[in-house]
Design a protein that fits this description.
Layout: H1 58-61, E1 76-79, H2 80-85, E2 92-93, H3 95-100, E3 111-114, E4 124-127, E5 129-130, H4 132-140, E6 144-147
Parallel strand pairs: 1-3, 2-4, 3-5, 4-6
Length: 151
């Protein structure tokens, strides 16, 4: 019959941990293999994950470049030729309409209308900014270019 006191693990499956700091006769006494003084021989010492052994760290070796101003406005661009291609009956075009038609990706970002291509539709276009040529072409087609605020 097998009892709890007769059960043993397989030979070699459990290795006895080498106990340091148990006298000079053990081979790992005195400084326990950690050298003499300094941070590396103290208990609880930690090393930063990015520490590179005294070498100049990667974060300082790689150059920093570029600058983006905190209040810089990046516009989503829409050309007049793209609006002209779409068949529609509305007399007023705004950013939400452009988002629905797939001309801009995000209705909450600023939109600038550029005057690339021909424009023949008489509509009111509301956007955050217009190029000079876009305003000219819209007014030439008996339309109106209205600038809306970016807030």
């Amino acid at each position: 019959m097998v009892t709890l006191n007769s059960i043993a693990s397989n030979p070699g499956s459990r290795k006895v941990k080498h106990r340091v700091g148990r006298g000079t006769g053990s081979g790992s006494g005195s400084t326990s293999g950690y050298g003499n003084n300094g941070d590396k021989c103290r208990s609880g010492r930690k090393q930063k994950a990015y520490f590179e052994g005294g070498e100049t760290p990667m974060s300082r070796r790689i150059g920093k470049f570029g600058f983006v101003h905190a209040r810089a406005v990046t516009y989503q661009i829409v050309n007049l030729r793209d609006i002209n291609k779409i068949q529609f009956s509305e007399k007023e075009i705004d950013v939400a309409w452009m988002r629905d038609k797939g001309l801009v990706h995000n209705a909450s970002h600023a939109v600038k209308i550029l005057g690339t291509g021909e424009f023949t539709k008489s509509v009111v276009i509301k956007a955050h900014a217009f190029s000079a040529s876009a305003k000219e072409k819209i007014e030439k087609a008996k339309g109106k270019a209205e600038e809306i605020s970016r807030v």
